[in-house]
């Protein structure tokens, strides 16, 4: 399963990149609003750090505006993926982007029917928000299960990008289900590494290593 970092913060992205575990980056207007840079400059900077799919979101809601913005974003770098909200005007644009060879990440997905329509429109990625479904007492990972099953049933090429991931359990469940990608905040990426028995075991080994005669 590919791992993307869900962040607009260049310091966080560099830290995750240095860990050697990420394959791409997802941003959204909320994350970029914290970066304090114009969108194009922030995305261009991220493309210099991570050589993988970089999702940049449009803020238009009409197809013509989404197409104009998306074509501008796609010009920033060959790795830019245009992030489009899952609304009817958005899917109209996704179909045209697909014809123009512009990769898309359809975002704000909360149902399997939405995901099926996005795949039929030719989306490269679909982003179901599991954490926000859990926030309202739903089971976000059930949606991932449904979408992966439906896409397999009809051999859709669209990749399932598990988004709004809140903890390592979401990550492991996504992998067990067979999602193609999970996008994680830096905090969760760091949690993936941690296990108390690893720390205890390493401390013991290092302590015992000191008892080994050097000559
Ligand atoms: O990038 C979209 C998604 O990951 C947002 O996550 O934590 O704001 O629900 P969150």
Short description:
This protein is of the alpha/beta class.
What does this 3D model show about the protein?
This protein has 215 residues and is of the alpha/beta class. It has 11 helices and 8 strands. It has an 8-stranded parallel beta barrel with strand order 1-2-3-4-5-6-7-8, surrounded by 7 helices. Helix 1 (10-19) links the parallel strand 1 (2-6) and strand 2 (24-26). Helix 6 (112-120) runs parallel beside helix 8. The chain starts with a strand and ends in a 6-residue tail after the last helix. The model has no long low-confidence stretch (mean pLDDT 98). It binds SN-glycerol-3-phosphate. SN-glycerol-3-phosphate binds at residues 6, 26, 28, 129, 131-132, 163-164, 183.
Contiguous uncertain segments of 5+ residues = none
What is the typical, i.e. mean, pLDDT?
98
Fraction of residues in H or I helices: 40-55%
Radius of gyration: 19 Å
What is the CA–CA distance across the termini?
Answer: 46 Å
Largest sheet: 8 strands, parallel, barrel
Question: What overall form do the CA principal axes indicate?
Answer: globular
Order of helices and strands: EHEHHEHEHEHEHHEHEHH
Strand order across the largest sheet: 1-2-3-4-5-6-7-8
Number of helices: 11
Based on secondary structure, the structural category is alpha/beta
Question: SSE layout and pairings?
Answer:
Elements: E1 2-6, H1 10-19, E2 24-26, H2 29-33, H3 39-49, E3 54-57, H4 63-74, E4 80-85, H5 88-99, E5 104-109, H6 112-120, E6 125-128, H7 130-135, H8 140-153, E7 159-162, H9 168-177, E8 181-184, H10 186-193, H11 196-209
Bound molecules: SN-glycerol-3-phosphate (G3P).
